[in-house]
Each structure stands twice: as C-alpha cells, then as structure tokens.
Amino acid sequence: MAREDAMTRPAVVIDNGTGWTKMGFARNVRPSHVIPTCVAANGATTSGKMMDDLDVAIGREAMALSASREVRWPIRHGTVENWEDMERFWQASVCRYLRCDPEDHYFLLTEPPLNPPENREYTAEIFFESFNVPGLYIGVQAALALAASIASKKQSQYASALTGTVIDIGDGVTHIIPVSDGYVLGSSIKSVPLAGRDLTTFVQYLMRERGEKIPPEDAMEVARKVKEDHCYVCKDMVKEFLAHERKPGEHVVQINGTRGKTGEKWSADVGYERFLAPEVFFNPEIYSSDYITPLPELVHQAIASSPIDTRRNLYGNIVLSGGSTMFKGFGKRIKRDVKRLVDERIAATTKGGTLTSKEVDVEVVTHNFQRTAVWFGGSVLASTPGFYSSCVSKADYEEHGANIVRQNPVFRGI
Ligand SMILES: Nc1ncnc2c1ncn2[C@@H]1O[C@H](COP(=O)(O)OP(=O)(O)OP(=O)(O)O)[C@@H](O)[C@H]1O
Ligand SMILES: [Mg+2]
C-alpha cells in the first residue's frame, strides 16, 4: 500500500483509557466501539508460555471469561504498564473490532499528560515494526479534549486557539491540565489517582454497609450502574443530607435485578450514595485520607501557577472531559467553587489598600461529547488536511529510529 493511498483513507483513532478504549475512524462524531481495556490470558500464559495471539480475548469478551482466565488491565492510572498485553490488545482491536489492515491507515493514538518519552517510543516500535502502519500521531489527551470543545462549538468567549484548562476525569486518574495555544503547561498540571473506579468502589461500600442485598458477584457492576444512572452533584453536602432525611421518598430510588446463577430476584434502595459518590471530588476526605485537596482548589492552584498572561483565559475556558465529569450538576459546582476561590484571592490581595483588581470570569464548558471528548477531538484533528503531514511517517521512523516520536510537532490545524 503506497503512503499516498493510505492518505485517502480515514485515519484510525484510538483513545486507550484505564478503563475504556474508544476506537473508530476519523471523520466520525462517535467511536464505533467502546470496550473495556482488558485482556484475558489463556492458561498457557499464566504457566509461563506465550499465548497464541488468536486466543486473546479483549474487552467484554475477556471479562466474560473471568471465571476461567486471568483478566489483566494493561493501563494503570492512565499510563501503559504492561506492553505485551497492550500490544495484544491493539492487535485484536484493529483486526477484530475495526476490521482493517493497519498497513492501510494512518493512526492517531492518545497519551496522558507527562507520559514518559520512552512510552511514546515503545508505542512507535509496536505500530511501525509489528503493525507496519504508514504514519502515526500521538496526541496529548487534554489538547484533544480542547479541540473537541472547539469543534462542538461550545467553547466560551475566552477560547482562543487551543487555550483552556481541561479537567479530564476518567476511570483511573484525574488530571487538570492548563493548555496555552496548544502547548500543555507541564509544570502546572495537577494529577490525582482518584477517579471513576474509586467512586464505584465507594458506592459499593456504602450500599454494603447499609445492608442492601445485592448478589456479591454482581456488586461492582451494579454499583457502576447506580453511579452512572442515579448519582448527581449537590450544592451542599450537609443540606442534601438533611433533605434526604426529611423526605426520603423524594430522594431514594429502588433498583431491581435478577441473580445470574439462580434466577432469584433482588431489589435494593439507592439513597445517600446518589450525592455522596461524586462529592468525593469536592470533599475528598469522605473517601480518602491520602488525597484531600478538593478538585476546585486543584483547578485554582493549576491556573494560579500558570504564566500570568494566560490565567484569565484559563479561568474563562474550563473544559470537561472523561466519563466521570458527566454527573448532573458537576459543571455548575466547579464553576461556583472555583469562582469563590478566585474572588477570595482577589479580596485578600486588595484588602486594606487602594489596589483594585478586575473581576475574573470563570466559565465551565459542558457538551454532549464529554464522555468521548478525547476521541472526538482526535477524530476532528485527524480529519483536517494538515493531519497526514503532522504524523511521523514510516520513512521518518526508519530513517531516524524510535527517537523521532519523542516529541510530536504541535498541531495547529483546527
Ligand atoms: N453518565 C455517567 N456518569 C458518571 N460516570 C460515568 C458516566 N458514564 C461513564 N462514567 C464513568 O466514567 C469512567 C470512564 O470514563 P473514561 O472512558 O473517560 O475513562 P478512561 O479513559 O477509561 O480512564 P482514564 O482517562 O482515567 O485513563 C468510568 O468510571 C465510568 O463508570
Ligand atoms: Mg481517558
């Protein structure tokens, strides 16, 4: 396949997350497949022999085999940790889900902020040497999420050429990433290993403590559904408690299920966990003793440590990305709490003096593509005419070696 032919085909876009992989072809609005980022090894691997790649199950198929096989998750807190499994996962994703020949397509992959350069090199080795792709672009997730908000036409008036603060909360990690003119402001990034998976664990814990009768083998999956379908961000935790106590009938929802093994029916109440789970972001001490800084405070710190001339635009264009930002009320609460912190700071610096400071606007952008914002941003970027020439080509790779992917050219084509 000539390189020019590959340029006429849509690029493959894959966003591998700790919990979920989003994959599909550029020019689409949504990924064609969203599957768990896991691999089921067969018996041979656990006894030390190589697994036959045809025998690799990934995603939901892998999870369905958990009774007989070891299920492994190659990404932890956003970063690839098991490269052999990751390669198997990519291989199966391309051949069995996207059903394309990797030699025929350019690829856009994503990486977390501050990804070690060696990880980019390992990725390039796999894609150029094992899969023989004609070209590769590895985009930073935050920059892609910003591109998505611009493409969704929902950016605030402050959004200018890829400037904004991205709050990306997925399954395994929370990142706050100030981006100025397409450049990630690396030293201002805040990162916390608390995210959606912890919220699921918390829901499960709260329901178990209350004695809800959920079959233990389904408890995690039920907790995830409860979190995604019934949780919301409240305005004030204490007031919300009182409201639940006063009128439980208005706040408690009942869920029902059937036990897979026996067909027995069960039902359970969902109450305080509806607002307590996402409250972990705002009052983290209710869940963790290690990470106790509230998310709005982290956002404020990240922006306050960025160059002074960027701050106004960073406060004015806070962009949400990742499945765990989808809770009802999340954007409003972030906006209110960050605004309070900014106002307090302004009041403290001007107090007692003649100094006055201009009000700072805080805007939080929410849009329909939050769950797959990174993927959508990748799809948009890979659909622009400048994309192919921004990629590292196979010829570049062969001439310069894996070193060439240590840095991507900054892409400004949107
Ligand atoms: N509607 C929803 N409300 C709340 N949480 C949700 C919703 N939909 C999905 N989630 C949660 O979002 C998480 C998955 O989000 P996402 O796909 O962005 O994560 P990821 O990319 O796999 O992880 P990471 O970015 O941390 O590596 C899961 O914890 C999932 O339960
Ligand atoms: Mg992610």
Automatic annotation (TrEMBL):
Transmembrane segments: none annotated. It is found in: Cytoplasm, Cytoskeleton. GO terms for biological process: actin cortical patch organization; Arp2/3 complex-mediated actin nucleation. GO terms for molecular function: actin binding; ATP binding. Its main location: cytoplasm. Keywords: Actin-binding, ATP-binding, Cytoplasm, Cytoskeleton, Nucleotide-binding. Gene3D superfamilies: 3.30.420.40, Actin, Chain A, domain 4 (3.90.640.10). Pfam families: Actin (PF00022). One of its GO terms (cellular component) is cytoskeleton. It comes from the Eukaryota. InterPro entries: Actin, Actin/actin-like_CS, ATPase_NBD. Belongs to the actin family. ARP3 subfamily. PANTHER family: ACTIN. This is Actin-related protein 3. It comes from Ostreococcus tauri (Marine green alga).
